[in-house]
Amino acid sequence: MAPDTRPTRTARRIPHSSGTPGRGRVLISGASVAGPALAYWLHRYGFRVTVVERAPALRPGGQAIDVRGPAIEVARRMGVLDELRAHATDLRGMSVLDEDGNETHSTTDVTVSGGRLDRDDIEILRDDLVRILVRAGGPGIEYLFDDSIARIDDRGDEIRVRFTGGHERAFDIVVGADGIHSHTRALAFGPEEEFLRPLAGHLGVWTAPNILDLDRWQIVYRTRDEQTWGSMVMSVRKNSELRVYVGLNGLDHSDPALRDPEVQKQLIAERYAHVGWEIPRLLTYMWEAPDFHFDAGAQIHMDSWSTGRVVLLGDAGYCGSPASGQGSSMAMVAAYVLAGQLKAADGDHRRAFAAYERALRPWVTANQALADRQIDRAGNAGNAANAESSEGSGGGEDSLPTVVDDDFYAVVDDFILPDHGEQGAIAR
Fold first, then answer.
1. What are φ and ψ of residue 273, in 5° steps?
2. Against a cut of 0.85, is the pTM above it?
3. Model confidence pLDDT, tens digit, residues 65-74
4. Contact 378/398 with Cβ under 8 angstroms?
5. Side-chain half-sphere CA neighbours of 272 within 13 A
6. What is the mean pLDDT of residues 359-368?
7. Which residues contact residue 64 at a Cβ distance below 8 angstroms, ignoring those fewer than 6 apart?
8. How many CB atoms neighbour CB 23 within 10 A?
């Protein structure tokens, strides 16, 4: 059964006396991973926190994501580590199939989506992670669903925010944590095309029943067609569901028609119409999937993550793309660092924003570079596997389309989480 994604906080006003006087009023735009993680820490440190989310409730569905390296320690300090592990995908391994559906490789050492299985990393569904983070924040955080920021007026001493719902509020800081297509970023920094760097391909994801009877297992299905790069299917939620992933190549990233879910589904259906194996059956569940998601592989690159009293967090400021495998971990670590710097600066946003960027930019840059390595390796692996398949032999371990080498984990683990004095923080 899918989790209850109805709002866990009503769109009510929390009295402005909540929090420590003088800490500041913070508006966070976006209630996915980065926003609730930051809200947790800011509220714990005594800030008055409001989170605005344009969806009517916490968004359902989404792909499996990873909590790795220093993000594991962030989860431990939040007190949610055991709960994250209880909701992990807990995959045992994976198989690789050729275009005819024949298994060319099987392993219990790694998966494409989760990497090495001998580490303490946690692969978890995005909506499970978000629900846990929101609940951890407690009742003192104000969540406004079915609303968004319409206008930002930075007056120097405060920011006046006009919401699409018509009301206006004053805040000391506004945080854009609203994803790669951040509206907050567009309002404060300029149009998306100035910062978006397209990468290879588009990815579609949806939920289906476990019609393949997978048991904590993942299947990667490869195609030779230049317009597709195959599919990945994995069992989730105690084998009761599947997450289906398909990839498309050669689409125009700037085409506005690609923002329409029906156009996206039609493109997938057309590109995969000739594909065999179980793809035709899996496609039938795409049309009515309540959690269908489709987006381009892309990154966000910016010279600065802040302007005035506005700062960006996670994908809004430095999206690594799913190819990096580090988006959620970067978001959780960055939320902890930003909150800690605001606490240390006693709300002085200029000092805090500068320290936040100094601390994180080298690690973020290295993590973004992982996406290029992943894409290059997957492409080369796919070419090698296709060549081997055409010669009648299966692809070996070197042709696995995933980065599981020591260099990858050296980047993942190469950040020492600071101590912001949690023992002395204001109790929740």
1. -60, -35
2. yes
3. 999 999 999 9
4. no
5. 29
6. 95
7. 89, 113, 114, 123, 124, 125, 126, 234, 236, 243
8. 20
